[in-house]
Design brief:
The protein folds into two domains: 157 residues, 2,3-Dihydroxybiphenyl 1,2-Dioxygenase, domain 1; 97 residues, 2,3-Dihydroxybiphenyl 1,2-Dioxygenase, domain 1, CATH 3.10.180. By secondary structure, it is an alpha+beta fold. The protein has an eight-stranded mixed sheet. The chain is globular and about 45 Å long. The chain has seven helices and 15 strands. It starts with a strand and ends with a strand. Strand 14 and strand 15 form a beta hairpin. This is VOC family protein. It holds the Pfam family Glyoxalase_3. InterPro entries: Glyas_Bleomycin-R_OHBP_Dase, Glyoxalase-like_dom.
């Protein structure tokens, strides 16, 4: 299958600027992203190489509620009133046409590709295209796919300035996903995206049994509750969704609880 990598976590936020400020206080560089005029949204971003966190907020509700060609914006409009929380993940591809063919062959209905763009603060026009899998009322939304308008090497060079963090050299190790049942999600996602499965283990801190699917730039770590704890609480509040990221660094451990999500940093 076309090679996929973790691209970014979309964190639905009523105040992306506050998220940025909170991350800066924890030694993680975050920046104002920009506005998506066609969607009525804006964002703040924290980069870790090519992968990043996007805090996505609504700037113009009257525009956002009329968007009918972008399932991510529709999900944001529906879910943000429930409270701030991570909502969906994006996987990166460098061959959208081939990916479309492969997913269609697997019998999936697709929505897109949808073109996207925004102006950066420096006036540069960023462009990309997004592809969604059309689903009937999913419990855990499947990832959407993104292809950027520039080569990875060009983007990596441009993003270097945003990827250096006072908290240390941060690498995304795991994308955290709260689910009711590992045996339901792991086989499906593994077969859909041709991902290798790791061994299940217990994370006592979160009160959950967890299992990885290996993916470049950020493994997918699915966690199902085995007792009361963060994962159970998150499921009770938001249902099956991503709930944060786990980083490795060369300095120290810290845990950041921010706008309904968890960002864990562990020393290598």
């Amino acid at each position: 299958m076309t090679s996929l990598s973790f691209d970014h976590l979309v964190h639905f936020s009523s105040d992306p600027s506050l998220a940025k400020y909170t991350m800066l206080q924890h030694g993680i560089q975050a920046i104002e992203g920009g506005k998506h005029e066609n969607w009525g949204t804006y964002n703040a971003l924290a980069y870790f190489g090519l992968s990043y966190i996007e805090w996505l907020g609504i700037q113009n509700r009257s525009v956002a509620i009329q968007v009918d060609d972008n399932p991510l914006i529709q999900q944001l409009v529906t879910e943000l009133p429930l409270g701030d929380h991570p909502g969906r993940i994006a996987l990166r591809t460098n061959n959208m046409d081939q990916l479309v063919a492969e997913l269609t062959e697997k019998g999936l209905k697709l929505h897109g590709p949808v073109k996207g763009s925004r102006l950066t603060d420096s006036g540069e026009l960023l462009q990309w295209s997004m592809l969604f899998i059309a689903e009937e009322q999913p419990t855990l939304p499947l990832p959407f796919f993104i292809q950027w308008g520039e080569e990875d090497a060009v983007r990596r060079e441009k993003l270097k300035v945003h990827s250096s963090h006072p908290a240390g050299s941060l690498q995304i190790k795991d994308v955290l996903l709260a689910v009711e049942d590992l045996d339901d999600k792991i086989p499906r996602w593994s077969s859909l995206f041709d991902l290798q499965v790791g061994e299940a283990f217990i994370n006592e801190k979160w009160g959950a049994k967890c299992q990885r699917l290996y993916l470049p730039h950020g493994n997918l770590l699915f966690c199902a509750p085995v007792e009361d704890g963060f994962v159970q609480d998150f499921l009770d509040e938001f249902g099956e969704r991503p709930f944060g990221l786990q980083f490795e660094n060369d300095r120290q451990d810290q845990s950041i609880l921010l706008q309904g999500g968890m960002y864990e940093i562990t020393k290598e």
